[in-house]
Amino acid sequence: MIKVYRDFDQSQLDIEYNARATVPDYTIFGRQNDAYSKEARETLECLLDVSYGDHSDELIDVFPAGQKAPVFLYFHGGYWRANSQKQAAAMAPNFVKHGIAVVPVNYSLAPSASLDEITRQSRAAVAWIWKNGAETFGADPDRIFVGGTSAGGHITGMVLAGGWHDRFGVPDNCIKGALALNGLYDLEPVRLSEPNEWAQLDEPAARRNSPIHHLPEQGCPLIVSYGGSETSEFKRQSNIYAAAWRNHGWPCSEFEVSECNHFNIPQQLRDPTTPLCREVFQMIGV
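Request: output the structure for the sequence above.
Response:
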């Protein structure tokens, strides 16, 4: 057996980074997220397809929650190659009811867009909210929180990273807390496995886009979680990121949601009584 990464050969490593294979039919959960998000757009006040940049993909949907409301930016999953902000509003009715504005973020998709570009766009979205959120929909720029699942968990790590804020004209502490769900924080094994067919990372790009290598100088409160049926590598990715956060002395809550899988864990945010949602609301302060 030729080891490719840690104790995995190529076949094993590809299995570890194949999220779709952890459930019988991942499309079920995509349809659920579509339906929940469509319901949110039909029942809540919302601003649709607001531009946060010059590219046609740089769009957000906004679900306001009143003047001076905290705002939760949410980055969708899809392994950087699928979905949009239109599948990422399932939590909006619950959050808006509790006084939190929700902003699902769209970004360009791989392989047409590199992870460098996806990261740049996601940081631009945060900067746009900090600069324009108050005037556009009443958001409190001093209470910006971010979150995401899968690819969105990785993006969450990259907007928490240090070193980009001056370029975008925002303070280092513009993000006050974060939720990272079943994300990827060290992209070296991604580079070595099947997802690199669309991620198209070389070794420098994998390191450049790995949150584990770009922690900020000062961390905010962070919640890291993942589903019970995740592969060992997806769980390890969350474990090492949470451990790095805690090793710096920054607040971090980490736990597995055993009844959830890679695709339905964000639906926990639809219900204010779930442990995951309670943790997020406590972090935001509502």
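The chain has a mean pLDDT of 97.
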